Amino acid sequence: SVPFLIRLFPALLTKFVFLNLLAFPFFVDLQRPELLLNNTVSLYLATEPGVTVGIWHTVPGSREAEARGKDRRWYEEALADAHPVIIYLHGNGGTR
């Protein structure tokens, strides 16, 4: 019956394959990464009209002392400085 249901409802296949409904780790607020990771802040970028992408900005350990206690504005300005930026694309699981 499972193949029959998938044939009737193809959206079910994507739910089972990608498991977008599950958020792991459980009971963690992924919009506040500073509670889990040092020197990390959650930001949002408007990539085009109507599309917003959520990102985490984590500074390297070499800038840890400089980043300690800084606000969101400092992290935004740090993205524009001369240091290289590494982009990690995690996939489409719905979590960061």
How many helices? The count is 4
User: Structural class, judged by helices and strands?
Assistant: alpha+beta
Rg on CA atoms, Å: 18 Å
Major β-sheet annotation? 2 strands, antiparallel
Low-confidence stretches: none
**Distance linking N and C termini:** 34 Å
Number of strands: 2
What helical percentage do the residues reach? 25-40%
Task: Indicate the overall shape.
Answer: elongated
Strand content: 15-25%
Question: What would the average pLDDT be, to the nearest integer?
Answer: 79
Quaternary state reads single chain
Strand order of the largest sheet: 1-2
Order of helices and strands: HHEEHH
Keywords: Membrane, Transmembrane, Transmembrane helix
Protein name: ABD12 lipase
Transmembrane segments: 6-28
